[in-house]
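Lecture 7 notes: from sequence to structure.
We start with the chain below.
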Amino acid sequence: MPRSRKSRARLPYHHGDLRRALVDAGLALLAETQRWDFSLREVARRAGVSHNAPYFHFADKRDLLAAIATAGYEMLKGRMLAASKNLRRADQALDAIGIAYLQFGTENPAHYRLMFGPTLQALDGGPPAEVVEAAAASRGVLKDVMRKGIEDGSFKAAQNDPVALAAVVLAAWSLVHGLTLLYIDGLATLETSLGIEQLAGMVSETFMHGLAR
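Predicted C-alpha cells for the same chain:
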C-alpha cells in the first residue's frame, strides 16, 4: 500500500552527508560575506537541498552556528598540531602554534569572532557542549606544549602544579588571542608595518624573555 503524502513528509531526508554539507555551506557563506546573518534557507540553497532539509539536523540557526564554530575549533586545532608536529623543543613549538593560531584568526576574521564572541556565549546555559568540548580540545594543544616546557625546564613554572600550568596557559592564550583581535581590527599595525608572522615573532620573544632586565 503506497504511503500517504503525510507519511512521506516524515521520512528522513537522504543525503550523502547532509549535516556536513550544511556546515560547509555555512562556512562558505561566512567566508564570502564575513557575516553570519544569513538564513537557514540561504544555507540550504547553497548546499543544494530543500529549505526544510536543515531541520533534520539543526533545531534552529543557532544550532547551525554552533556546528560552524565547532568546525572552526577543529580546524584551529589541526593547524596548530601540524605546525608543531616535528618540533621537539617546547619554545619552538610554542612559537609555531602561536603563529598558526594568528594566521587562522586573521585569515578567517568573521569565523574567529563567531567562535570567541558573544553570539554563542549568550545561549541559555552557555555555549552548546560540542562547542565547549571542541574549544577545550584546541586549547589542549597549547596546554600540552606548556606542560612539556615546564617538565623539561624550558618554562619557568612549578612542576606538577595544575594552577601554575593553568596560569601560564592563560597568559600565552591571552597574548595570542589579544594580538589576533588587534590585528583583525587593524590596531596591531598602528605602531609598526610588520606582517603578522614578524609581529608574532617579536611579541613571542617578549613573552618568552620578559621586559625586566
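Points to note: Residues 73 and 135 are 6 Å apart (CA to CA). The chain is about 65% helix and 0% strand.
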